[in-house]
């Protein structure tokens, strides 16, 4: 399903999009709102995601992307078990409601799959948008990546009917 809103299109991603989504990931982490230190950003995304491991990660999930004039602006992934694994918006496109639009597509997809629960590990950036669509924090935690500590939140949402 494709939905239009302004010039931004939300659609299902395919393998030809995966390299562009790796660039979105890197841009969002390195240049997005600055709630993490430069060292944390570098540890989380030393380089754009690409290659076989990245392609395998995305191929095993449902992936929705936002694009405008052929440029990938953001994406969200949903594993078949209801886990929202990745949700990233290019820095220049943050604040435009794209995460909410991507999430609505994912929730529709989850309902079609018969899922009754969605959950995620949300960063400081992602926590407010997930709360705005009904997720609640189940556990605050700190994780270590490449020697840097990151505060994040396990969150979930129950899907009714």
Could you characterize what this model shows?
This protein has 161 residues and is of the alpha+beta class. It is built from five helices and eight strands, in the order E-E-H-H-H-E-E-E-H-E-H-E-E. The two termini are 21 Å apart. An eight-stranded mixed beta sheet has the order 1-2-3-4-5-6-8-7. The N terminus is likely disordered.
Shape: globular
Task: Supply the helix-strand structural class.
Answer: alpha+beta
- Our measurement of the CA-to-CA distance between the termini, rounded to an integer number of angstroms, reads 21 Å
- Multimerization status: single chain
Mean pLDDT: 92
Q: What's the total helix number? A: 5
Helix-strand sequence: EEHHHEEEHEHEE
Unreliable spans are: 1-5
Q: Can you list the strand order of the major beta sheet?
A: 1-2-3-4-5-6-8-7
Strand % is: 35-45%
Topology record:
Blueprint: E1 3-5, E2 8-12, H1 18-31, H2 38-44, H3 52-59, E3 62-68, E4 71-78, E5 83-89, H4 98-112, E6 117-122, H5 127-132, E7 136-145, E8 148-158
Parallel strand pairs: 5-6
Antiparallel strand pairs: 1-2, 2-3, 3-4, 4-5, 6-8, 7-8
Characteristic terms for this protein:
single chain; 161 residues; alpha+beta; eight-stranded mixed sheet; 5 helices; 31% helix; globular; disordered N terminus
In summary, what is this structure?
This protein has 161 residues and is an alpha+beta fold. The protein contains five helices and eight strands. Strands 1-2-3-4-5-6-8-7 form an eight-stranded mixed beta sheet.
């Amino acid at each position: 399903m494709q939905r239009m809103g302004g010039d931004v299109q939300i659609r299902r991603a395919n393998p030809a999009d995966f390299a562009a989504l790796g660039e979105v990931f890197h841009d969002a982490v390195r240049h997005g709102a600055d709630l993490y230190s430069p060292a944390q950003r570098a540890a989380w995304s030393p380089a754009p995601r690409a290659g076989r491991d990245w392609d395998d990660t995305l191929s095993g999930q449902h992936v929705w992307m936002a694009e405008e004039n052929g440029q990938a602006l953001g994406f969200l992934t949903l594993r078949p078990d209801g886990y929202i694994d990745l949700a990233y918006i290019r820095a220049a496109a943050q604040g435009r409601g794209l995460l909410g639009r991507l999430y609505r597509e994912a929730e529709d997809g989850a309902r079609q799959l018969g899922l009754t629960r969605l959950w995620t590990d949300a960063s400081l950036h992602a926590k407010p948008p997930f709360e705005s669509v009904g997720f609640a924090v189940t556990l605050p935690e700190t994780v270590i990546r490449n020697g840097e500590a990151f505060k994040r939140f396990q969150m979930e949402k129950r899907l009714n009917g």
